Amino acid sequence: MELNRTELAARQRIVGAIVLGVGLVFVFRLFQMQVTTDEWKNRAERLTEEQEVLHPSRGLCLDRHGELLVTNAPSYDLMVVPRFMAEVDTSALAALLGLEREDLDTRLSKARRYSRYKASPLLRQLNAEEYAKLSPELWRYPGLSIRTKPVRQNVHGVASQIVGEYREVDREDMNRDSRYRLGDYKGKSGIESQFELELRGTPGIRHHLVDVRNNVRNTLTELDSLPVSGNDVTLTLDLELQQYAEALMRGKRGAVVAIEPATGEILAFVSAPSYDGNLLTGTSRGAAYDSLSKHPWKPLYNRAVRGTYRPGSIFKMVQGLVAMQEGVISERTHIVCNRDIIGCHGAHTQDDLRRAIVHSCNPYFYDVMRRGVSRHPDLDKFDNARLGLGWWTERIKDFGLGTTLGGHIPGTRPGLVPDTTYYDNIYGKRHWTYRTIYSISIGEGELLATPLHMANLAAIMANRGWYMEPHLVRDIGGKGKPDALQQRQEVGVDAEHFEPILDAMQLVIEDRTGTGRKAYTRGITTCGKTGTVQNRNKADHSVFMALAPRENPRIALSVYVENAGAGGDWAAPIAGLLVEKYIHGEVASSEREARILDATYPLDPEFAETDMPVPPTNPTPAP
Amino acid sequence: MSSRRLQLTSRLDWVTLLTVAFLVVLGWLNIVSATAEAEVVWDLGGKAGKQLIWMGVCSILMVGLLAIEGEFYIRTSVIHYLVVLALLAAVLVIGKKVGGARSWFGVGSFGIQPSEFAKTATALMVAWFLSRDGRPWRTLATRLQSMALIAVPAGLILLQPDAGTVLVFGGFVFVLYREGLSGNVLLLGVTALVLAVLTILLGASESWYPFVGTSSGFWWFLVALGVLGLGALLLTRAATLPRFRKQTTIWGSILLVGSMLFSTGLHLGMEHILQRHQRERIHVLFGIDVDNPDADYNIRHAKAAIGSGGWAGKGWAQGPMTAYGFVPEQETDFIFCTVGEEWGFLGSAGVVLLFVFLILRVLHLAERQRSQFTRIYAYAVASILFMHFLVNVGMVIGLAPVIGIPLPFFSYGGSSLMGFTLLLGILLRLDAERFFVLR
User: Fold this and answer.
1) What's the complex ipTM?
2) What are residue A151's DSSP bridge partners?
3) Would an 8 Å CB–CB cutoff place A47 in contact with chain B?
4) Which parts of A159-229 fold into alpha helices (H)?
5) Any A CB within 8 A of B382 CB
6) Torsion sign across C-alpha atoms A514, A517, A519, A522
7) Measured in Å, how far apart are chain B's first and last C-alpha atoms?
8) Per-residue pLDDT tens for A552-588?
9) Contact B393/A26, CB-based, under 8 Å?
10) Domain A239-611 is of which CATH architecture?
11) Does A5 contact B at CB distance below 8 Å?
12) I need a surface site. Which of A537, A555, B115, B395 has the fewest CB within 10 A?
């Protein structure tokens, strides 16, 4: 196979073509890698760029006068970089940190599993004292460092249930919102949760270039952004009144809700027993949460909006208003106190509306509602009851009962106002008459309402026929209140009908025989009404609803004290003190005050009713 | 001798020399960036500084090489060759072990790699041997002897072991091809490559077999190869003239059986002779999933560095992948990653084309020679440069397996730079003498 010289010389082209071909393949491949796809670019960025999140400072919570309620305080996380921990005496470190040796080892190996080069938390949320103890020893441990992180601090330790918790996100939070990363915090309940988006602000980002050992080597400033602080939330609460209400309710179970009638703004909001929200941050959280959740009085349960009680006697005023508006009675209608049908108490025989409210006359309101639901002589008792209950339910719901009152307060329960469907389901259609359902006429039976509903009812009385949906937030970041919170909700009862009711409420407090005498305050025309919610086997709940001053109401409130007896004994004086404190700014009689402050149930899970250092229950409890 | 006085400056191929000088300067800039110590460039203890010393040494060496008459190289070819063989043998015994291979003589903080000089010596030797009587590729003895001249140093290097340099010796096939080696050998090479790729791909897959159960998919491939090959053979036989049939049958059978033996041998070699990490490297190259995340660490980071360069790159000494140690061996074998990251597509494609230009230029020099010795030597130079370029750049862009081999004139390393200076300096001197009487 001898080739001549020319043929061999031609082979240079083949060799040249191979070289050129390889070169072009390389150029093509480079084009593909560098220009057509971001795959490698992204991969390189994942390797070399690290983003440091600059946490914005969270918005503050202020009271209605701008007093600080919740602020941010530093806490300290102890961070560890495992690769520097190889030659560390772990037993000495365990002693320093106050941990068991095994516990420390577990934490260290967890950190090691996360990354040998990146810092991960060894101990979280040390407070300033713990940090001070630790910091002079830190130089011995090159792998340890401190990362400061703000935690929430409830300045006065009040309104903890309203403010809610701010704590570490869980997996679900991270799935829902990609902004949250492991170890981030967010509001988990109350205002903190409801206004999370406003409070949290916008985080800044600082971009770093890291080397293959994850040491920060450089920064990429052109991509950085600064954090934007969260918006401050101004609550409607009055810090002084809130603190006073919490003090009065200390050692008791129950609730206080006070509303500014003209605006629907909640001035004080207590669910007792209350607790200091600061307990639920930092290293103490676990133990504190445990004891709170196991406490027999259920301090974590927000009684003000979730406790549903039968409204009792207070409801009679609503009955009176609705009946007058419907023309069923007038303020001068007298009704015989016929105790054959329904029990009553006290000495009276034939009251008009005012007296009936003061005496809390059960037969009176039994008959008022009977008249209302039997207005069609051509219908039988079944259809009359259905028809009557139909309009009745609508009317009652206009007072906010059976609704969430706009739902501006998280967790608000609607309570219950039974309607025709409700009774149809229980008894069957045309199987119930007024005789079946009459107990609702005196606020008993199936009716249920929360302390918030009752405070709102007081606001309706104060405004003579309307209310604003009760709410806790006055302003967020200077944007003011949404329009929805400035809409009057009319209850559909003319203002003139409220005067006889208010007369009665004033009598409840000022009359010699009134049940709410303990709420009397010199110089303030307070209107009120006692309620006594009966309980099977246990003492009655003491309830009081009040507004003041009558001429130009500035506060409307409800007070619940569980298992404390008649409304006049405990709830009324508490309401009186709160009114005095709010209107006068101070309480004149320290004697009255001391009686309430000193009265406590024993904080004992095995507590017996008889041990209660509270005066004996009313011998003839009002139904 | 006046007729033979050489006007060196006018006869010298400045294009090649300047191209190479340009590559060296570019390479040095990238070494500075890759060693990320821009502030200590002038510290001669650093790598960039050391490279600067080597560049100076090699410039002087180049001048010296150009000053020596070509005749000297031709006459001393055999001596060079024998000295290099002796060094290659010696390094196996007294060499310093670096990275599992015994390929260095340690001299203080500098090291000398005899395999870098073996390429030049072998090129000279082959050129001398084939150009002895002016009829290079005539007898079988010549052919076998010339192959043996290449195989001996390659074998010694394989013992170090240094697979990359052995591969470079494979480039001599182009030299032999130019001098008369049958083109079928190249075709055979391509066929072997295709078979090898299929064998590796299918060998890593799993398949079901009657009576045996699950095993490597390779055995199905072998069956298919046999059946299809036999069918093709019978068809070809039927289509050939009767008087050629016997010949067709014989050669066809040899080819078929040879292919099957080659594939089986390769497969069994992959499974039983190669170490686990070597097998994984090959699997990574072919995109086969490897359990071990570290197996493709180097190449993943190398590709990320290059791919992140974009059109124009991140700028000199601005590449974080390079600066912060993500790319292994980034000043030597992976220097091209720095080019890709910091100079982008324009820069890296530019460097690729510069190499293509250099190799084609050397081929051009080869073909303009009247001297057979110079032509063969030039071909050897082109082949060596080409193999380095092919394997090195192919590796970092993920088209060739990870085999440590420097990029000529570009990578950090004194031996490498000196070796290539030697290789090229001799060529340039020989080329400058191209109008001398035929040798």
Assistant:
1) 0.85
2) A73
3) yes
4) 160-163, 171-176, 190-194, 196-199
5) yes
6) positive
7) 16
8) 999 999 999 988 888 888 899 999 999 999 999 988 8
9) yes
10) 3-Layer(aba) Sandwich (3.40)
11) no
12) A537
